[in-house]
């Protein structure tokens, strides 16, 4: 018996759950479903988005609806059209084996008469945005006087968006004896007021700590000069080759400007804000869901409905005016059990906001430094090396091999690898040679605490930096990897620092006295059957400037003899990456490269429809217009 079967769900729901591939209930499901099935009760559930709350109320609701009665029996209110459609879709999936259950979505910006017609045909469940629902009630197009269940989803968001009046009016139109289930990530006063006014002795469940951010999200900040904000964003994108992110700006204008700059610089980005038409917004969201857009630059209001799983990073390009909004932003990542990172690019004058946010989310930020050009090159190289290793060969290529072998005849394996790598690396290195590294600011005495590496004196200078072949793919974030390393190596609390986790690999530092131990112990450890490989990175301390502005990692030329290292490990440059800057002559190159033939063009083709990056490079290179929303 799996855990869903123990919750008291019907056979038809269990069958649908099987189809959906849900193996175990999430925490909110485990807590809410038995309570809601057992009796008709009001409930307040504190749960973030992405915790599986739609199913937590959807499953019991479907089981309780009388499919033979075509009257409207349940109303689900949600903040945005996007969420509304998503919930409708989920409920349809959940109820696919229930005969006669109809769900209708009701939201602004679409034909009200058509929605009214759909309801008239007999919809037991209506999923609505508050504004449109109120409108329909006013026009007598819907009757909610018989409903048994009312669900307020993302109640804090709805109230945040100014729907208080509408919600109060709607609830007042519905029968007193109905059950109300309220789901909210936070419990601001307005939500508590609604609960008090309209609910009777609600059961309360909390997932995770009250008012705290999701524990699957780690929080980082980068302290930079205001003039470096945009460059910092680009470098963070370059240092995270698989980034799939929402980048938050404060105003529509900044949102549009940042998106335009990113597009110009060759990144797969798009803007999402209120000045776009609904059709444009739909188009952007479709591309984002399809991962043709890697960086969605959005305002808080426009991003409210974004409910996309597997967002790897939320980037606070600017902090929100209301720091409470930070919680909503960061909740866009770390969903459905996945790990996510919320990044803040911050200037010194805004630094105090970080501490205020820490108090709200009850989690600490890690202070990090913007990677140097050399570090980015290294990351990108290793990323491609991993990718080459994981690439499945399409044997179509066999037909061309004799001709290719002819051309490459006489080159040794080592030479060949070096040349393949150089095809990309030479141009990339040329860019970063030309561009100064960002001077990372230090929060210094303003934020002295024991966060990772932040309080260590001279923590770059004498330290040994390592590369290790485990990363977020193995379910590590910087905190868990640090713990794992400390435990495996039997090291003290502060002995492992500057842990930087990428998808297939990570970097970390120790003091040199531990180097022998790290190399010996870690190279003989297996993680789930895979041998761990650790190497000393030539990129000491991350190759970053230290807090005094001294360069600790060296530059590309001069003193550094081996900047593009690890050639021997089979690396090459990301064939599909179009995020490297275009100025300096190679960005535009990159956009066209996949079609030029040779090494770079073959990789994207062979990857076809996988969820890898070719889609990104194709996105703007091939058809820029549809993905580049214009202002209205
Ligand atoms: P929600 O919080 O309802 O927006 O759900 C977030 C995501 O988690 C959705 O894509 C759901 O389909 C998915 N999900 C919900 N419940 C489960 C579960 N028990 N196991 C795996 N995924 C789930």
Automatic annotation (TrEMBL):
Keyword Ribonucleoprotein: no
GO BP, sorted A to Z: response to cold
Entry GO terms, CC: cytosol; ribosome
Residue span, Helicase C-terminal domain: 225-378
Region (Disordered): 439-464, 535-632
Keyword ATP-binding set for record: yes
PANTHER family, per database record: ATP-DEPENDENT RNA HELICASE DEAD (PTHR47963:SF8), DEAD-BOX ATP-DEPENDENT RNA HELICASE 47, MITOCHONDRIAL (PTHR47963)
Protein's name in the database: RNA helicase
Organism: Flavobacterium shii
